[in-house]
Amino acid sequence: MQSADGDALSIKTIDLQDHSRVLAILTTAFTMCPLLRWLYPEPREYLQHFNGLIKHHCGSPYSSGAYLNDGDKGAILWDTAGEKRDNTSMMEFLLKSVPAHRRSETERLFETFGKYHPHQPHWYVSMVAIDPIHQRSGLAGHLLRHATEISDAAQRPVHLEATSPHAMRLYAQQGWSVLTEVQVGGSPPFFPMLRQPKT
After folding, report:
1. CA 154: distance to chain centroid?
2. pLDDT in tens, the chain (199 residues)
3. Can you name the CATH fold of 11-195?
4. Cα–Cα separations (whole angstroms), residue 92 to 115, 173, 197
5. Where are the beta strands (DSSP E) in the chain?
6. Are strands 11-13 and 177-178 parallel, antiparallel or unpaired?
7. In the chain, what are the domain boundaries?
């Protein structure tokens, strides 16, 4: 694969020794995420709780995913149909870590997300992260195509939540369809989306 400026892209499957590299990509990328910064609007809170959120939200993130191995510019994490996330544990973590005035809306928001997860076996893209200085350069599309080639080969639908209108449009270009718009209280709008496998 090549980037927009013609440079070759190296995409590496994540393994355990990549933990710190991938966490650095995610931490940097999600400083601009509407969902993460709604949950943790203060920089200190964001940095304090981000690693814990990743562990709860992504399950075993460093065994299912890939990252751009040249400059660590981006990463993508997903759960396969055989992996189960502990939603109860994740909610307990969120309700302990988000600001007190936001706990009720946070609980309602994630409960609403859960209503749109498919009932049939599916994969879940939990994180798509591009370093902010490389965003809007086509790198996210390369990571998404890498992931969908794998999910298409497995013939699995793939679910995700787009956390911004820009992300929604990007995922739509890669074959995802919007299921609904979710907004709870003062939260930004979010968009559960589903992609059916291509033969």
Report:
1. 20
2. 444 444 467 899 888 888 889 999 999 999 999 999 999 999 999 999 999 999 888 875 555 888 888 789 999 999 886 556 678 899 999 999 999 999 999 999 999 999 999 988 999 999 999 999 988 888 999 999 999 999 999 999 999 999 999 999 999 999 999 999 999 999 999 999 999 999 8
3. Aminopeptidase (3.40.630)
4. 18, 35, 33
5. 11-13, 65-68, 74-79, 123-130, 158-162, 177-178, 191-195
6. unpaired
7. 11-195
